[in-house]
């Protein structure tokens, strides 16, 4: 099983993908193809996707049962002890944001609920 999600894709790429996959919603393609065809489709996506974004998810014989590839995304896949996870970049706060909202600073230590459980209150 393969799922490809495209954002801001040119019409020629969308038309090419409909030869192999079903477009179930705008920019969402689903189908069952071999690994060779899947890799060739991904190469076509990379060559023809100009300024858009793409995500491909496909079945795999891994612990999670799937793998994925991304292009043009700010979130990046990383391998964490054999699991594929998504690394989200930290939000950069501008000076305007800090002027509007007071900084709350992250508190460290035990939460109130944890303290109550720990000390039997």
Rounded average pLDDT: 84
Estimate the helix proportion, in percent.
25-40%
**Order of strands in the sheet with most strands:** 2-3-1-4-5
Let me know the number of strands.
7
How far the N terminus sits from the C terminus, by CA atoms, comes to: 52 Å
- SSE class: alpha+beta
Q: How large a portion of the residues is in β-strands, by DSSP E?
A: 25-35%
Order of helices and strands: EHEEHEEEEHH
Give unreliable regions as ranges.
Answer: none
What is the radius of gyration computed over CA atoms, rounded to a whole number of angstroms? 21 Å
The number of helices is 4
Major β-sheet annotation: 5 strands, antiparallel
From the spread of the alpha carbons, the general shape counts as elongated
